[in-house]
Design goal:
With 122 residues, the protein is of the alpha/beta class. The protein folds into two domains: 62 residues, Signal recognition particle alu RNA binding heterodimer, srp9/1 (2-Layer Sandwich); 59 residues, 2,3-Dihydroxybiphenyl 1,2-Dioxygenase, domain 1. Helices cover 19% and strands 36% of the residues. The protein contains two helices and eight strands; from the N terminus they run E-H-E-E-E-E-H-E-E-E. Strand 6 and strand 7 form a beta hairpin. The longest helix is centred in the first third of the chain and has 12 residues. It is globular, with a radius of gyration of 15 Å. This is Drug:proton antiporter. InterPro entries: Glyas_Bleomycin-R_OHBP_Dase, Glyas_Fos-R_dOase_dom, Glyoxalase/dOase/EhpR, VOC_core.
Length: 122
Amino acid sequence: MTSPNLIILYVKDPAESASFYRNLLNREPAVEAPNFVAFPLDGGFTLGLWRRSKVEPQPSAIGNRGEVAFMVAGENAVANHYEDWRKRGLPIAQELTELDFGPTFVVLDPDGHRLRVCEPDK
């Protein structure tokens, strides 16, 4: 069986995005090239940052059509992440709120990708 293990975000400037994610994830990339940067993530996933102008085939459109979600467990874990990321000055697209699936908030990376923090499914 094949399982997905790479999330790729199209970015304007991989170096700028790498700086953002280096700080956010508190880790170094495994690959750092002019047009692509890759961060290994826990659980066998990798986050790839690909220079948008070099993507082949070129995407037909750009915009917010998805999110990268960070599920954090523990009492007040979502609220604690919110306070930490707010203090770091990350652009908040959705303030800490309660939705059907629990507490959540959304920040934006330098290219406007939505990064949601929420609790894992119970």
